[in-house]
Amino acid sequence: DGLRPEFAAGTPDCYIQLANQCMDKDPLKRPTAKEVYKKFQEWKIILNKSIEELDQNQTKIQNKFLNADEIIPTIRPTQKQHQD
């Protein structure tokens, strides 16, 4: 009850925030599929732009995702045993 996944080190803050919104215990506070899609599209656009085209906030978002891409290959998968 109320269990939520942990996020790996280096996961972009904006991604964690969106994921937590999607898992809100109150379904009325969760974003719609359309809102999630729009957010993913926004991030995709940011990632495809050059640094000169981005404002300060967009640059931070781009850097967080690019840093995560570098960290992901270094993370070893873990499996936890859960009691039924």
Automatic annotation (TrEMBL):
<protein>
    <submittedName>
        <fullName>2110_t:CDS:1</fullName>
    </submittedName>
</protein>
<dbReference type="InterPro" id="IPR011009">
    <property type="entry name" value="Kinase-like_dom_sf"/>
</dbReference>
